[in-house]
From TrEMBL:
UniProt KW keywords: Isomerase
Pfam family, one: CM_2
Keyword Isomerase: yes
GO molecular function: chorismate mutase activity
EC number: 5.4.99.5
Gene3D superfamilies with a match to the protein in the record: Chorismate mutase
Segments crossing the lipid bilayer: none
Keyword Ion transport recorded: no
Species of provenance: Qipengyuania flava
A Gene Ontology BP annotation from the UniProt entry: salicylic acid biosynthetic process
Name of the protein described by the UniProt record: chorismate mutase
PROSITE patterns, A to Z: CHORISMATE_MUT_2 (PS51168)
């Protein structure tokens, strides 16, 4: 006989929801990066710069407001978006051959 504790059904339910949310986040990020890859290819084609500081500033401000409205730490949301933006710019620079 096993001495393993009986799984807690409430905790198991929470974890299942977290797993579903994590899967959705990965799928959404994959789709976002597919779109930003197309943007990077377009920018390279029409010789636009990989980064758009004004757009980034607007997006960060918009997502900070959304975070506050959603009771999420706006500092966290900004760090998360900055991480994504930096990765997108890296991809755009690669598309532009830089």
């Amino acid at each position: 006989m096993s001495d393993a504790p009986t799984p807690d059904p409430v905790l198991a339910g929470f974890r299942k929801s977290i797993d579903n949310i994590d899967a959705a986040l990965i799928h959404m990020l994959a789709e976002r990066f597919r779109i930003t890859q197309a943007v990077g290819e377009y920018k390279a084609k029409v010789t636009l710069p990989p980064a758009d500081p004004n757009r980034e500033k607007e997006q960060i401000a918009r997502l900070r407001r959304l975070a506050e409205d959603s009771e999420l730490d706006p500092e966290f949301s900004e760090k998360f978006l900055r991480f994504i933006i930096d990765e997108v710019i890296r991809h755009h620079e690669r598309a532009a051959g830089r």
